[in-house]
Design goal:
258 residues, seven-stranded antiparallel β-sheet
């Protein structure tokens, strides 16, 4: 089965999603078009990258991932096709590709040179990205779709800082349960802290002194720290909403003293 995924900030109200899906199904009869998310916060490439980075690899090799977030073409932000880890990524070079790859290098970068069939330049997801996806599935040589590039626009998330007696990190993402996902990964935590005693401080929390296996390891409405399926340290509240109750946002720092 040929597979195309869609990750956008369109929401579900308007005609954009239906237009792109309709075009794809009209061009490729045996394609499966999968919605990863259309509820990315408007223009938020960090959020969109986090969602796609943590889901794309579960799809079959050869899957094409269309990304429509801040997708308007400019000379600084051209439309690109990337091949990475035997997957294809189509979108605009806003820095989102570097966030998805997280320091890795793609196997191939093509700056797209695709002639649109319309004179409307406000809907590249349909008029460019979907067209490129269909050409890939029809076996067209991707190098014929534009010029090979060497680099993509780099965009960096803040990295945790390690001090003599603490790690300081940041929240980078909130899921739909308002759980706070931080930039502190499990391997870093284990490397720096190991078996030492520690306390996690975040906003109005009194402090968490252990990593739990699940949310239900604590009572309802109590803060809990877990390593999420993404491998990141996550702060949540069992059966409640950490973001609103603790007054968190993506500028909130997290401090782990040991």
């Amino acid at each position: 089965m040929k597979t195309i995924t869609l990750t956008t900030d369109w929401g579900l109200k308007d005609h954009y999603l239906a237009n792109v899906k309709g075009y794809l199904y009209s061009q490729i009869s045996d394609v499966s078009v999968i919605d990863i998310s259309h509820l990315v916060s408007k223009f938020n490439i960090v959020e969109g990258a986090f969602i796609l980075k943590n889901s794309y690899y579960t799809f079959p090799k050869g899957t094409i991932h269309i990304i429509s977030i801040k997708d308007q073409w400019t000379e600084k932000n051209p439309h690109l096709l990337l091949k990475y880890n035997e997957h294809y990524f189509i979108g605009t070079d806003t820095g989102i590709f570097s966030l998805i790859l997280d320091g890795d290098k793609p196997e191939l970068i093509i700056e797209l040179d695709i002639i649109q069939e319309t004179e409307c330049f406000t809907f590249p997801a349909k008029d460019v990205f979907a067209k490129v996806a269909c050409q890939i599935l029809n076996g067209k040589d991707i190098k014929s779709m534009g010029q090979v590039k060497e680099n993509i626009l780099e965009c960096y998330l803040p990295k945790p800082t390690i001090h003599e007696d603490c790690i300081i990190g940041n929240i980078i993402y909130f899921d739909d349960f308002q759980n706070a996902i931080t930039n502190i990964k499990e391997d870093l935590f284990k490397k720096v802290i190991g078996n030492k005693k520690f306390t996690i401080y975040l906003s109005r929390m009194d402090g968490i002194t252990k990593i739990s296996d699940s949310y239900n390891d604590v009572d309802p409405d109590v803060e809990v720290a877990v390593f999420s399926s993404t491998g990141h340290l996550e702060i949540a509240m069992n059966n409640s909403t950490a973001k609103s109750l603790l007054g968190l946002d993506t500028s909130t720092s997290i401090r782990i003293e040991f």
